[in-house]
Every structure is written in C-alpha cells, then in structure tokens.
Amino acid sequence: MKFIETITHRFKALPYNRQKEIAVKGGKAERMTLAKSTKTNREILFYLAEHDPQAEVRQRVAMNKATPAQASDMIARDQHEDVRLALSGRLIKLLPELSLDKQSQLYAFTVQALGTLALDEVLKVRRALASSLKDHAFTPPDVAGQLAKDIEREVSEPVLRFCVALSDTVLSDIIATHPAAWAAEAIAQRPKISAGIAKKIIQKENNKAGQYLLANKGAEIDDEVLQEIVMRAQDFPEWHEPLVSNHKLPHKMANQLARYTDARIRKMLQDKGGYDVDEADTVLEATRRRIKLQENSKNRTLKSLKRQIKDLDIAGELNEEIINDYFAIGDIGFLYEAMAYKLKTTETKIRKAIGMKKPQVICAMCWKADLSARFAFRLQQELAGIKPAEVLVPKGGNAYPMSEKDMLWHLDFLEIE
Fold first, then answer.
1. Does residue 304 sit within a domain?
2. Phi first, then psi: what are they for 399, rounded to 5°?
3. For 8-44, what is each residue's pLDDT tens digit?
4. What's the CA gap between 42 and 355, in Å, rounded?
5. Rounded to a whole number, what is the largest CA-CA distance in the chain?
6. Among 90, 108, 89, which Cα is nearest to 99's?
7. Lowest mean pLDDT among 26-30, 278-282, 288-292, 371-375
8. Which domain holds residue 380?
9. Which of 16, 43, 72, 333 is most buried (most C-beta within 10 Å)?
10. Residue 85's pLDDT band (boundaries 50, 70, 90)?
11. Is the pTM above the cut of 0.90?
12. Domains contained in the chain, number
C-alpha cells in the first residue's frame, strides 16, 4: 500500500512523456496508478483503455471520471465483462449532470455507450444495467427501449414495470408484439398508465394483466377503457370484483356487466347504485336455462343428440347462444356435434381439427359455422389449450383477425365446403 501511495505522490508531478513511458513499458502497479488518477493525461487514459493487457487496469480506467467520453463506446466493447460493468456504473452516475445539456457531445457519447451495453451479449451486463436504470429519472429513452425489448425476462421485466422513460409508442408496440404474457402483465403494474395503454392491455385479453390493471390506482381508466373491459369481462370472471370495487361504472355498463356476473358481484353493483334490478331476471333466466340443459344431457344418446341438434336448426335456434350454453356447462359433445352439423362434416373431423391446436383452423371453422370471433377466441384458449402468445385475438374486439381468403384456404385444407 505504501508503495502505491509513493508512486501516486510522485506521479502527480510526472510530465506527459513519463506518463506515456509508463503506459507503454511500465509495470502493472505503475499503470494501475495511471489508470486510477484523475491527474492522468486524457490521451494516456484513452491509450490504456484501448491497449493495456490487464483487465484490472482497463477496469480502473473505466471507473476514472477523467477518462474522456470519446472512449466510452470503445470501453463498452471491451472483451472483459468486469470492465464493461465498471463503465456502466460510472456512466449512470454521470447521467443527471449530462442530462442538463442533451445536445452536448458528452451526452451523445454516454448514450451511445449505454446503448452498446444494453445490447451486450453477456446477460450479467444487461441485467445490471436494467437494474440500475429501471427507476433512474434520467434514463435515456432509446436505451430504455432497448432494454424493454430484451428477450430475457430478468432484463426487460423490471424496465417494463418501472422505467418512466418508456414512451407509450414503445409500450404499445411491446404489448402488441411480445410473445410472452408476462410483458403485458409487467406493463399493467407500472406506476402511471395512460388510457391509451390501458386500452391496449385490455384488448390483449390477458387475464392477469387485466387484474393488475384494474387494481392499479395509477392507471387512467376512462369510459372508453371501461367499455372495453366490460365487453371482454364475460370471459374473465377474475376481473369482475376489482372492476366493480375500484371503478364507478356508468349505468348502461353496470347493466351489461350484470348479465353475466354472479350474485355476489350483482349485489356489489346494486349497492353502488349502478345496477338495474330488471337485469337480475335475465341473469337468473340464463342460470335456470343452463341447469335445465345439464339435466337434459344426462341420459342422452348419440342418436337423440343428433335429433336434438336437427330440431334446433329447424326451429332456428341452433345459434351461438345455445352452443355457448352447452359449452358453459362443459357439454363438449354437444359443441362438437353442433359444429359438425353446421359445417356438414363429421364430429370426428371437428374433434381432430381442434386437436391440431392451430388458431387459424379454429377461427376458420367458427366463421363458417356463423359463430363470433369472440367465441373462436374462447375455443382457442379453453378447448384447444393454445398458448396465449399464439392465440388469434379478435380485431377491434369483435372481428375475425384473418381474411376471408385465408379462412377459406384452411377450410379447403380440412375438406370442409
């Protein structure tokens, strides 16, 4: 230690040529002293950052606040990860001061280097950067965007959840394109969420993301967002309680929600003054109808089922409501036979087609059977068990996300006219 202190003391008066000699030919201890001192000539520090054979020396250069900003991007590409990590820590500390003049070259060099680190091939480096920048008030937006789109969850999730530098444009793009469900769930837990992003989250129809959003007091949920929620909430019972508990629904939406919620939620709606008692009859009627259907299906034979479906069709009642009722009570046999009847094919072929777990196939069959895109969405998730990232979501909440030409192609593949 005394040796290092002596060198440091002597070094303060060293001329440029002596610094250069040490940088090129000096021992490790002498070069380390150069690397640590803020009195070292900037050109010498640049030289050490680029040429010194010892990672420990280059690491000290990376930490030295006197190291020229022009060297930052080069250091960010250093072969040793500890050097890159050291640079990351120093640059992050500089951000508050540099952000005062975002047009300066120093700021540009810093952002460029941080952007390089955000794409580092070593997970440890990207993870450390994301951890430091996720709640940093001066995080450069472009760097935040790179980290938010990282394929590794431990890098992108904290940035998606906490970083205020992410724009709505970036968030919207990630919600729309990210293959993993946790991305939308992380965004739904951000401290502040605009109405536009809240709407995008609901349109994604991610159960957990919807729950997080509805419980998030920092989310802006206006009437337009509420309408999106109510329109989709039938398929997500877990949304009902936080929706009613945390948000005041307009009268019309309260009535709409009451048609498919259970008695406890309807009571909550009624207590909040937005529930029309007349709607209770509609809910009760649906419940009684489904209980009756369940009773009728107990002793049913295949022959009687086929006859029942044909009679329903003749009466004009083989529609989505009745098929949905049977689906709701778990009578999948009725669903297969009804779709087979509507598509003029066999129950075996329908069962096999759904077993393919292809969202395009399910959409095409439901479209041909005059069933809604929302019903096709439910079949993909609840019957076929298709992964959330692969499910085809209705466009605008109601329209099929495929062209008629594409759906006809899949029907032709299935040999369904």
1. yes
2. -90, 150
3. 444 455 789 999 999 999 999 999 999 999 999 999 9
4. 67
5. 103
6. 108
7. 278-282
8. 297-413
9. 72
10. very high
11. no
12. 1
